[in-house]
Amino acid sequence: MAAARVSQSYYEAFAKRMEMAGIRPHHKIAIGVSGGADSMALCILASLWKCSELGTDAKISDHINGLVGLVVDHGLRAGSGIEANHVQTRVSSLGHCRDGNLRSSSKCLLSESVCAYLAGIQCDILQCEWPNGPPKQGHLQEAARNARYKILKDKCKQYHIGVLLVAHHADDQAELLVLRLSRHSGVAGLAGMAFVCQVFSDYSGTCADHGILLVRPLLCFNKDDLYKICEEADQKWVEDPTNQNMAFARNRIRKFLRNLQSCDFKNEVQALISGCRRLRAFLNIACDHLMKETVSVNEDYGYAVLDVQKLFVRTVNDLCLSRFLALLLQFISQRYKPIRGRAIEMLIKYICNYPCKSSLTIAGCYICPAPGSKGLKILVCFSCDSPQSISSRISTFENSYSGEMQAVSEIDDIISASQEFSNSLRQFETDVPFLLVDKSETVLTEGKNLGLISESTLSRLLLLKDKMSKDLDNKHEDNKAEENRWENQITDRSVVEQEPLLFGQSCYFMNRFVVSWGRSKYSKEHEIRHIGAPDGTLLDQNHSCSWLHRKCSSCPIQINMATWLRHMKEADWIYLSHLIECRLTRKHVSLKETDEEIMTSITHPTDQEAQKTISCAEYVAGKAREALARLKTIPIPARRALPVLVNGQGTLLGIPSICFTCCPFISVFTSFNPRVPLRGGYSSWI
User: Fold this and answer.
1) DSSP states of 154-223 as a string?
2) Which sign does the torsion angle of CA 599, 602, 604, 605 carry?
3) Peptide bond preceding 534 in cis form (omega within 30 of 0)
4) What distances in angstroms separate CA 153 from CA 122, 159, 196, 404, one per listed residue?
5) Cβ(669)–Cβ(516) under 8 Å?
6) CA 235, CA 434: separation in Å to the nearest integer?
7) How many whole angstroms separate alpha carbon 288 and alpha carbon 615?
8) C-alpha to C-alpha distances, 427 to 420, 424, 430, 443, 499, nearest whole angstrom
9) Which end of the chain is more exposed for a tag (fewer CB within 10 A), N or C?
C-alpha cells in the first residue's frame, strides 16, 4: 500500500497554531477525545507534530512520550461504554494494523523530503458519575459538558499535565455565533471560544495551582478539512447519534447552517467572528491596564479597593468598563462563570453616582464606600450571604507537590511565549471594530458597513437569529418548571454540608483561603511529656492540654478532634474582648509578655506554680489582645469573609487570618489563595 499523504498545508497550519499558543513539542499534553472526526484528526496532527519535531525521542514503546488521550464516557446512553473502548483502541493504535504491525499507510508524507510516522497515543477512559441521577433533558448537554470538563481537568491535575487540547473548529464557532445572536449576547460574547484560556479546578491541591491551559488549535480548520485529514491517514471515526437529535439547539443550528452553506457565506461569517475576536483581545489588554491603575488587593484578607475617581479620570469605553467590573466581581466572589447582565448594570449605575454613599450586594460581593475615602473609593468584599456554597473539599498539598510545580513551570513558560506572540499583533484602539456597538443586532449591521459581510449574509443571519430566538423562547417555557424546582432545592443558604477538617489536614475555603491546622512550633521545640505518664512518652499530635497539667478547663482541644470552618461573625470579636476582660487564675497577661515567656511558665513551671491551676487562658488572653489589634485594621465588611475554625459544638478554636488560636500547642494557618486570579486567568483570542 502506498504511503498516505496528509496535506502539508494542514500540518503546517497546525504547527503554526501550536507555536502561536506557546506550546513546544517537549511539553506534556492531554487531548480530549470523543472519537469523532474532529478529535481523531486532532490526534493525528498532534501525533505527527510530536514525531516530526522530536524524532526518535518522541516514542516510548508504542506510544508517544508526553501525549495522552482522554476519552470521557458520560454513561448517558446505551452502548456508550462499548463505544469508549473502541475509541481507546483506535487512539492507542494510531498507525498500526490490528496485528500490531506498523501499517504502510502510517508513513504520512508531509512533503517530498519530509515524512513522519503516526504513532499510538496512550489513552485513558474516564467515567462520569451522576450520584443524583442523570440530568434532565432540558439541561442534558450543559450538565454533560460541565461534568466532562471537570473530569478532564482533574485527570490533567493527576498526571501533572498543564495543556489540554480540544477539537473545536471553525464550524463550531459559526454555530456558537448564531446561538449567541439568538440569545442577544453582547459583542464580546460573539467572539466565540478562546484560542487559549486558563481554566481552574473547583478546588486546588496545592498553594501554587495555575489550573490548566485549554487550547483549541483547530479553530482555523473547518469540518470538511478534518474529514479529509482522517481519510488521508486512513483513520476511522465514530458519529455521535446525539448529534442527530433535533431537540438540541446546537443540532438545529448546525442543520440550518448546512443548508445555507456556500463558500462566500462561510468566509463572511468567519470574518465577522474574527472582528469580534479582535475586539475581545483589545478589551483584555485594556482591562489589564485598568486593574493595575485603579485596583488594589489586600492579599492577607481577600478584599479589593477600587479607586472610582481614578477610573473616571480616564475615558473608559462602556464595553471595557463592563468587562473590567465583571472580572473584579468574579475575582472577589470566585464564581466559576463570568458575571454578566443586570449585576454589571447595577454596579455601573452605583459607581457613576460617586462619591458613593450607600452599599450594594451583587453577584456574591458586598460593595460599600472604603473607610476614610469620602466615597471616592469603594470596598469590594466577599458577601457571606452569597448563594455560593462552601467549597470544603480536603486535599493534602505535599503528596504531589514536585510534579505539580513542574506543570506550573510549563504553564508559565507557555503563557509567556503565547503573550509574546500576541503582543506582536497588538492593535491600536482606532483599528478595533465594534468598539462602540452594544447590541448583537448592531454588530451585524456594523459588520456589513465595515465590509465584513454582504447584504445577503446579513439577511440570512438575521433570519436564522429570529428563528432560533423563537425556538429558544419556547424551550425556555418548557424548562421553567424544572429550573424553579432546582432553585427551590438550594433556597436555604444557611445550611451548608461540609466535610470536617481533621488534625494536620488542609483545605480550600470558599475557593479563596487555604486553611490548615496542626502542631505549633512550641509543641515541637519543647519535649513536652505526659504528666503522670509512667513511660514519659512524648506528646503526640492528637494533643489535649489536659495531659499537660492536672487541670486545664479552658482548653477545648480534644483527642482526634474534627473541626469545621465558617465565616467570622460579630460575636467572634466580642468573644475576643471577653477573653481579655476575664480574670485569670494566674496574673493578668502583660502586653510585654511574649509567647515564649508564657510557654516557659507553662512547660517548665516552678514548684509554687505547679500547685496552681495553670491553663491556656493566660496564653489565650495575650493572643486575643494581639488579634483584636489586627482586627481593627480590617474593614468590618471584610472581616465577615474571614475563615474561623470551630469544633463540633461551635466553640471557636482559631481565627488564622489574625493569628489567634485558643491553645499554644496548636497552629492554625491560612493564606489568601484565590482559585481564579484577578484578571480571570490568561486567554488568547488570536
Assistant:
1) HHHHHHT--EEE----HHHHHHHHHHHHHTT--TTGGG-S-SEEEE--SS-SSTT---EEEE-TTTT--H
2) positive
3) no
4) 17, 10, 15, 13
5) yes
6) 42
7) 53
8) 14, 9, 8, 20, 49
9) N
Backbone angles phi, psi at 303, to 5 degrees: -125, 165
pLDDT given for residue 73 in this prediction: 95
137: CB partners within 8 A, 6+ apart: 247
For residue 671, give the C-alpha cell: 493564606
Distance CA 135, CA 284 (A): 35
Task: Work out whether strand 660-661 and strand 506-509 pair parallel, antiparallel, or are unpaired.
Answer: unpaired
Q: How confident is the model at residue 207 (pLDDT cuts 50, 70, 90)?
A: very low
Give me the pLDDT at residue 357, please.
Answer: 92
In which band, very low, low, confident or very high, does the pLDDT at 589 lie, cut at 50, 70 and 90? very low
Residue 4's SS3 state is coil
Beta bridge partners of 367: 360, 380
- Reported as a single tens digit per residue, the pLDDT across 117-172 is 678 899 999 999 998 888 887 778 888 998 999 999 999 989 999 999 999 999 99
Beta-carbon contacts of residue 564 (< 8 Å; ≥ 6 apart): 498, 500, 501, 645, 646, 647, 648
- Report the SS3 class of residue 379: strand
